Amino acid sequence: MSFDVNQVRAQFPILARKIDDNPLVYLDNAATTQKPQCVIDALVEYYTQYNANVHRGAHRLADEATKKFEAARDVVAEFINANKREEIVWTSGTTESINLVSHGLAQYLQPGEQVVVTEMEHHADLVTWQQACAKSGAKLVVVPINDEGELDLVAFDTALAQKTRLVAFPHVSNALGTVNPIALLTRIAKEAGAWVMIDGAQGIAHESVDVQALGCDFYAFSAHKLYGPMGMGVLWGREELLKDWPVWKTGGEMIATVTYQSATWNQLPYKFEAGTPNVGGAIATARAIQWLSEFNFAEVQAHEAALLRAATDRAMDFQGLRIIGSAEHKAGVLSFVMDAGHPADIGFLLDRQGIAIRTGHHCAEPLMNRLGVPGTARASFAIYNTLDEVEALFDSLKKVQMMLE
Questions:
Q1: Most distant CA pair in the chain: distance in Å?
Q2: Which of 66, 112, 246, 392 has its CB 3.0 to 4.6 Å from that of 104, i.e. a possible disulfide?
Q3: CB neighbour list of residue 288: distance below 8 Å, 6 or more residues apart
Q4: What does the mean pLDDT of the chain come to?
C-alpha cells in the first residue's frame, strides 16, 4: 500500500489516547512499538476461536492452532530470507535468543580464545558474553567507538587478529541510533574464522534483513519492537550450527526419546523450544510482519529519516541541548542531554505534556560511562510518528527548560 501516515495512525487504537488532556505523543519506540489493530485482533482471535496447545492434540482446535503456529514460522523465514524454516527458533525475545547462543557457546569456548563485542552493546549483548567468557576462561574484547558513536573499524579489524570464537554486535544501537555496517563487520569476522551473532532488536523494523546475504551465523530480534506482541522473539541460526548446538532448556516438546536414564533431542527447531510455546504470540508476530510488509519499505524508511532529520535540526538549534550520538548513518533515535536538568526530570515534565520518551542509561551503562554522561533523554521514532509530533516535542522541551532553569 502507498504510505500515508494519517492512515497508518488510524490503525493504532492507543494513539487516540490523551494524557492529562494532552494528545499522546509516543516517542518511546526503541523500547517498544505500539500495535496495530490487526495484530491485536490476531491475538484475540486465537484466544477466542482456537486456543489450544500445539502439535499433539487430537482435536480440531489443536489442529488449527498448530497450522497457524507453524505458518507463522514460515512468515518469519520468508521475512528475513532464511534458508530453511527449521532455522527459525521461537524465543521470548532478543535477550533469550542471545542467552540461548551464549549457553551453547560456553561449551565451545576455550582458554586463550576470545569473544569480541563493541562499546555500544545493550546489556543483553554484553553481560551474556561476559558470563560465557568467565565460565570458560576465554577473554572478552571490547572494540571502541569514536565520539560520534561509530565503531572504530581499524580497532575491530585489529581485535580479530587474535583467536576469536565469536563476534557480537548490534545492528542498530538502542542508545545512539547508530546503524552499524553489519555486512562489512560480518565479512571481516568470517575472514578471521569467527562466528557472528547480530543483535537485531533495533534494526529489524528499520532496515530490510536478508540473513543469507549478510553471511552471519545468528540473528535475533523481538516482536514487540516490530509492532508485534510482548514476550515473543526469534533466533535465526544456520542449520549446520543449530543442529549440533547444545540444547538450551529441557522439558516437553524438545525431546525425541526419554528413559529414566537418558534422553535424546528432537529435530530442529523444536530441540530449542521446550515447554508450551507462546502460540498466540507467534501468530500475532506473523501478523505484524505481514502488516509491515504491505508497505513500500523505502517509503517507510524515507518517512522515518525525515522525522530524524527534522528532530536533529531542531536539536542543533536548541540552546542548552546536546545530542549524544551523531553517527553519519542513524536509525530513528535522538538521544540528548540538557544543561537545565537531569534526563529523569526532562522525561517527567514531558510526560505531563503528553509526550512519552525514555530516560536513563538505556541498558547501556558502560556506553554512558564511555560518553561521560549519567544517561540521556531518548526520543525514538516509528512508522506512525509525524513531523507535527517532532515540533510538539521541541515546543515542550522549551517549556521544560524554563521550568528547570
A1: 70
A2: 246
A3: 35, 36, 39, 223, 226, 227, 228, 229
A4: 97
Residue 142 pairs with which residues in a beta bridge?
117
pTM score, whole prediction: 0.97
Residue 145 grid coordinates: 567507538
For the cut 80, the answer to whether the pLDDT of residue 64 exceeds it is yes
- Cβ–Cβ < 8 Å for 114, 164: yes
**Would residue 231 be called left, alpha or beta, if left means φ above 0 and alpha means ψ between -120 and 50 degrees?**
left
For each of the domains in the chain, give its residue range(s) and CATH number, in order of start.
Answer: 5-30+296-404 (3.90.1150.10), 40-293 (3.40.640.10)
Cell of 365: 551503562
d(CA 180, CA 398): 32
According to DSSP, residue 207 is labeled S
Cβ(377)–Cβ(322) below 8 Å:
no
Task: Give the per-residue pLDDT at 324.
Answer: 98
The Cα 297–Cα 10 span in angstroms is 19
Examine the residue annotation and report whether 38 is marked as an active-site residue of this protein: no
